[in-house]
Design goal:
Elements: H1 3-26, H2 31-40, E1 44-53, E2 60-69, H3 83-86, H4 90-109, E3 115-118, H5 127-137, E4 147-152, H6 153-158, H7 160-170, E5 176-182, E6 199-202, H8 204-207, H9 214-229, E7 233-237, H10 242-251, E8 255-257
Parallel strand pairs: 2-3, 3-4, 4-5, 5-6, 6-7, 7-8
Antiparallel strand pairs: 1-2, 1-8
């Protein structure tokens, strides 16, 4: 990894540590209450990471919008310390609602933007989340055609019938779907023919050092073959080096995402 990138990531990790320390000191370690209060106060924003079309020109295909929640001082509360805990709780539904609302607001004021956001399968039947979705899709600007929902393998398989019905309902309205973390979970390939994913994001674990890792090469090629069989675009996630990017381009990946192309940041410029 280039020294400048190492320094940037080290700074980023150090900055992210401060809010957790603040939470531990001022809220007796109750990070979830801190997150809940931040959402109630409207202290949430989207950070953006580009998904780049494979090739030398580095053209953006779309951006992923990643939710960021801030404390009272404006410091980001590390998502890793609360997201795995809240997915099956009401707080997880709140996060998905806020994320979708912020996405629609941005799409309304940025006509050329195509944006992906994460959503849990559990939120697809949530009444508040569905109201936000219907209000956004009712916009005459056709916002659905520029929106991509990313659903993780584990979430999709947990409620696969719910996800399939939702996809069947929403794809005619322009929304696209991405299978996140492809290969990392326990997805049954027999269900892929029933889903309607437009693209897959190959899990980062298969991308790391792929130019010199025969196991990752074989596994990634197999995942790409499955994706192509079902006419899904392939995004290589977690690309951190030029060597990885070059090898994946030769393999035929359609798009790339990772620190090599840009860290998540506030603002699209």
């Amino acid at each position: 990894m280039p020294h400048a990138l190492q320094s940037h990531l080290a700074t980023d990790e150090q900055a992210l540590a401060d809010p957790l320390q603040f939470a531990m000191a001022s809220r007796d370690g109750d990070v979830l209450n801190l997150v809940r209060e931040a959402l109630a106060a409207g202290r949430a924003r989207l950070a953006f990471q580009p998904i780049i079309i494979a090739g030398p020109e580095r053209r953006s295909a779309f951006y992923e919008g990643l939710i960021r929640v801030m404390d009272q001082a404006g410091r980001v509360i590390p998502a890793a310390h609360f997201m795995p805990v809240i997915e099956e709780t009401d707080l997880g539904r709140q996060i998905d609602c806020v994320t979708l609302d912020l996405a629609f607001k941005l799409l309304r004021v940025t006509p050329n933007l195509r944006l992906s956001i994460n959503v849990s399968a559990r939120s697809l039947g949530d009444s508040k989340w569905r109201r936000i979705l219907e209000d956004g899709l009712a916009d005459k600007a056709g916002l659905g055609s520029r929106l991509i929902f990313e659903i993780s393998e584990s979430s999709a398989m947990m409620l696969h019938e719910v996800v399939i019905r939702f996809m069947d309902e929403m794809q005619p309205r322009g929304i696209a779907f991405a299978l996140d973390g492809f290969g990392a979970g326990l997805i049954a390939f027999r269900h892929l023919k029933d889903f309607f994913f437009d693209l897959v994001k190959i899990d980062k674990g298969f991308i790391r050092g792929i130019e010199s890792d025969p196991d990752n090469q074989v596994l990634t090629e197999a995942l790409m073959t499955v994706a192509r069989q079902f006419e899904m675009l392939v995004v290589a996630d977690g690309v951190e080096t030029k060597a990885e990017a070059d090898y994946l381009t030769q393999m035929g990946a359609d798009c790339m995402q990772g620190y090599y192309y840009g860290v998540p940041k506030f603002g699209l410029t």
